[in-house]
Design a protein that fits this description.
- The protein contains eight helices and ten strands.
- The chain is an alpha/beta fold and 246 residues long.
- Strands 1, 2, 3, 4, 5, 6, 7, 8, 9 and 10 form a ten-stranded mixed sheet that branches.
- α2 crosses α3.
Length: 246
Amino acid sequence: MPTSMPHDGTEPVHGEGEPPVRTVVVDGVRLAYRVAGPEGAPPLVLVHGRGESGTTWTGVVEELAAGHRVYAVDLRGHGLSDRPGGYGFADFRDELGGFLRALGLAGATVVAHSMGAAAAYLLAQREPELVGRLVLEEPPAFVPLDPPRPRAERPEGPLAFDWEIVPTTDAQLNAPDPAWRAELPAITAPTLILAGGPTSHIPQEQLSGLAAAIPGARLVTVADAGHLVHETRPAAFLAALREFGL
């Protein structure tokens, strides 16, 4: 079980009008995060996908923060967080759990995209008390890829994330741990799965299967959204969350 320790570090504002970057240390890894919304409002945690950061949610944070205290985290290896190595899905799962515990956010709503959504539902399987409600945007279903992904070539130049994340998580997508699907029925949080339709690279029937395996899960498809629903169709994304009760 991961341990965590609060840290009150604050970094300069990155962009006019944006909230300052705060930090927390989880298992020795410094994680950056941003907070919006009134203190005391119900907590909502945003978890980005691979190669992104908490800033991916900029277009929807203001509306979400109208009724929630919103926390947008940079997972390890991404954005302004540390790059310590250890980038498997289980690492991200444990880190998300440590983040929730460190900030006293047990029972928060978790809204997560892609790789971050996989970490979120793996956490909801293992530690259901940490996740109150769960929104999974275009998550991988951990069906072994056929054909498998070939080894990706690193682009030239500096990256906004640690490239080691890509080959490590690709290998796990090619041959995922069977327990990750077998334990889907252990999820007790009310769950919404958002699909982006046929323009997404994720087979949409796999998302239907994921919804069928999670007790009581609801599946909503946002037409022509693709993989980045919250960026390409923010109004429809927010409407789906409102209908879900957020």
